[in-house]
């Protein structure tokens, strides 16, 4: 709890603001049937298992049966060629076809290999360097190498390098010949050529088509454009959230009759605060500060409330662990120290006592932090998160089941029981086991920006 209680008006606003993203009560899995979405059944069963384990009791056997049946149904839906999930179908193809596994493994490092080769060619054959060459043949060679390195075919690039290695004039320049030899012997070039060769394989062509259906290729013009749009949307949500927090600060000042509150954005955690900074949130979108002293020349502030802006519930859900680590980091502050934080509005001095009082306690968290969002609340929220769904689908047993199903038209769902055993007993599955409780907690912290402004206006009235 903060060193001082929340201002009564802020406390009232936080208690009365509409939280339209909040999840409805969870039905009992025993009440669900085959007409219920498979992912919903899975999420419900997993949550019941988590609750049982938290109470130090073994989940009832019926839960495993429901889980296995629902997972089998979800896999069947995902491999449907017309209505299924292309990302999962690509994973199954990668599981089944050695050529696709080879292609996928090489492609994972292809961007790095391309950058390395093109950097080497730029160093050797940059247009400015070509102009300084004394011989016309060498200028021609470097120009061809540079063009080939930025073409679509690495086999053509390799052929260009080898042709110039065999050129009679190259023997007169041992240094140039050595550079060409390094290029032809490059492991990166061999890997890129192997990707080119595999691209004509029928399984690889199908794999690439599935990936294209799932979304644009990384680095493509469409992917870059989508990234720009996403960043612009994120910036707009951040700006709207900061404006709402400004309205709150003004309302608190008007209520108190004295200017004691301010809002800062992009507040960066200083390295002076001890504790692990990696994987923790170290930049906060918007922060409500309350004056801690009356020195106008050297004001000191208490952290009063923290706001993070997210464009969707999924974005907030994946962010929560990082946010919790960020709060734990701030709580490592020395209570007797005043820390300087950089913000868009300049440096601000914040009391360590107000930071040290921050907690990740679930009951207290809504009085410390809020996720602001401008997305519409779904009529039927998705209870199984995208990351958890893909972890379940891409488990070895799920891929084996899907592969058998596609090959023979039938498969025994009991082979999926090993996933249940891992889920309730293996630490690596903890995030999936806790996925619904995490989702519920995030949804409790989420507020639509319009609703926050309405609550502030109602408080003023």
Number of structural domains? 3
For the secondary structure, the number of strands is: 7
Helix content: 55-70%
Structural class: alpha/beta
Measured distance between first and last alpha carbons = 28 Å
Tertiary shape:
flat
- In spatial order, strands of the major sheet run 1-2-3-6-7
Q: Rg to the nearest angstrom? A: 29 Å
What percent of residues are in strands? 5-15%
- Unreliable stretches (pLDDT < 50, length at least 5) are none
Protein name: 3-deoxy-D-arabino-heptulosonate 7-phosphate synthase
Organism: Burkholderia multivorans
Describe the structure concisely for a colleague.
This protein is an alpha/beta fold and about 450 residues long. The protein folds into 3 domains: about 10-80 and about 380-450, no CATH class; about 100-210; about 225-375, no CATH class. The chain contains 21 helices and 7 strands.
Give short descriptive properties of this protein.
flat; alpha/beta; 3-deoxy-D-arabino-heptulosonate 7-phosphate synthase; 9% strand; 7 strands; two-stranded antiparallel sheet; 3 domains; 461 residues
């Amino acid at each position: 709890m903060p060193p001082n209680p929340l201002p009564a008006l802020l406390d009232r606003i936080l208690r009365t603001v509409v939280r339209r993203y909040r999840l409805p009560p969870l039905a009992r899995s025993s009440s669900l049937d085959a007409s219920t979405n498979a992912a919903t059944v899975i999420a419900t069963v997993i949550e019941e298992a988590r609750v049982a384990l938290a109470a130090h009791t073994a989940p009832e056997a019926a839960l495993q049966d429901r889980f296995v049946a629902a997972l089998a149904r979800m896999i069947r839906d995902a491999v449907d060629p017309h209505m299924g999930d292309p990302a999962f179908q690509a994973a199954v193809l990668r599981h089944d076809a050695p050529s696709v596994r080879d292609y996928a493994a090489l492609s994972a490092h292809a961007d790095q290999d391309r950058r390395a080769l093109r950097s080497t060619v730029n160093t050797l054959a940059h247009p400015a360097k070509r102009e300084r060459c004394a011989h016309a043949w060498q200028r021609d060679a470097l120009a061809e190498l540079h063009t080939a390195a930025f073409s679509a075919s690495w086999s053509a690039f390799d052929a260009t390098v080898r042709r110039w290695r065999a050129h009679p004039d190259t023997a007169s320049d041992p240094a140039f010949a050595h550079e060409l030899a390094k290029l032809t012997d490059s492991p990166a070039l061999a890997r890129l050529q192997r990707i080119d060769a595999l691209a004509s394989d029928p399984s690889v062509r199908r794999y690439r088509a599935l990936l294209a259906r799932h979304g644009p290729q990384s680095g493509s013009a469409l992917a870059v454009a989508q990234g720009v749009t996403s960043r612009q949307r994120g910036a707009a949500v951040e700006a709207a959230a900061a404006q709402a927090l400004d309205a709150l600060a003004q309302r608190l000042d008007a209520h108190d009759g004295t200017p004691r509150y301010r809002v800062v954005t992009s507040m960066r955690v200083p390295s002076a605060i001890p504790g692990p900074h990696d994987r923790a949130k170290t930049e906060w979108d918007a922060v409500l500060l309350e004056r801690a002293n009356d020195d106008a020349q050297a004001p000191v502030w208490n952290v009063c409330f923290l706001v993070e802006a997210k464009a969707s519930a999924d974005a907030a859900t994946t962010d929560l662990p990082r946010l919790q680590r960020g709060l734990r980091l701030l709580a490592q502050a020395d209570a007797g120290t005043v820390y300087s934080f950089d913000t868009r509005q300049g440096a601000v001095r914040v009391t360590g006592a107000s930071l040290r009082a921050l907690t990740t306690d679930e009951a207290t968290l809504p009085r410390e932090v809020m996720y602001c969002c401008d997305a519409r609340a779904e009529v039927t929220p998705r209870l199984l998160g995208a990351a958890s769904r893909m972890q379940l689908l891409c488990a070895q047993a799920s891929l084996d089941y899907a592969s058998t199903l596609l090959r023979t038209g039938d498969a025994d769902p009991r082979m999926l029981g090993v996933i249940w055993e891992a889920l309730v007993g293996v630490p690596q599955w903890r995030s999936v086991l806790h996925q619904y409780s995490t989702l519920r907690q995030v949804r409790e912290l989420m507020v639509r920006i319009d609703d926050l402004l309405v609550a502030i206006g109602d408080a003023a009235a």
